[in-house]
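Supplementary Text 2. Reproducibility record for the structural model of the 358-residue chain.

All settings were left at their defaults, and a single model was retained for analysis rather than an ensemble. We include the record here because the model underlies the residue-level annotations in Supplementary Table 4.
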Amino acid sequence: MSSSLSIWDPSRHGPEPQTFDEVLAQFRQLSGQADQPNYWFASFAQHIQNVVNSQPQVPQEWRDRYGHFVARAQSVEQAIWHIELPAASQTAMRKLMVDTATTLGLVVYDDDLALAFLRGDIVLPAERRSSWDALLAPPEADHLPGEDEAEQFVTEQMLQAFGPLGFTASKGQFGAIKLTRQLPGGGGQKIGFSIIADAYKDAYRFGVTTQFSHEAVQALYQRFKFTDDEPFFGSAPLPLDLQKRIFYLSTYQEARAAVASVYAFLEPILATTTTLQGLDGLMNGSLYPEGKERSRDGGRSSPHILIVARLVGNPDYDAIEAELTEGYMKSNWVKTEPNQSEWNRLVAYLRTEVQPLV
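Retained model, structure tokens:
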């Protein structure tokens, strides 16, 4: 027999229940009641659809059921929307739907588990909260069973953390996973990570890199013939005190804790670097000194960083130009033509042809 969740909107059919008995009473009262399509149902469906269509390793059943979920939500003309759960990875989808719905202020009733869920992480009846927690968490002493399973679990955890910020997942080069988001105004951010088995430590290496892009920077960069054509540049490396930037994961508990640490560190930086001024603060200012240092390391990002400084009218532009020129001329990049001549062209062009945008 299939399992399902029932959701409804207490702002339309309130008041919001406070007890499990009130949830049941509201459920019985609204069952079968006609209603107009609900904006919050569509918002809920949009988030589920985004996760399903952006996560590279979800079961095919998820794509079949929820790949066009918004259209189904817009056709619901009942006060209660009954949503059938998949057989594949059912607990993961159940949690995703509960978290998404309650974040939007919807009420969720799970008849199979005899539980209800409200915003603010409320589970009713309260005395059965432990049964929900036990269902969700893999035994914390259990080892991650294999590299593929470890990668899938970490990817799910990363998407649960960064998905609400607008990041979507895809496979990058050499098997790495990348989370990317496009920002209003032309900016972009990328979080790359990989899971690699380490036989010596009997664990999985989890490393994270973060880079940035901007359409205005790329438009200028493409006027030149530098040998690197990657639009993402800069760096916001994890601090050394976070497992020396590499986490070694053996258990589900360690994986959840690592992702939580990564999110706690990166979220403020991501929030601050959504504009050219924010990028300049990271790469030419004092927002995160190690990020500034690492962004200059090796010279690859130096042209982008110089462009950022010019576009924002950085008052220390002369000093930044001199510092970046010295570093670039000592880097390996300058050994490959035409990078040296293109750097000189870029410096001259920015001085004579480009005025600050802000």
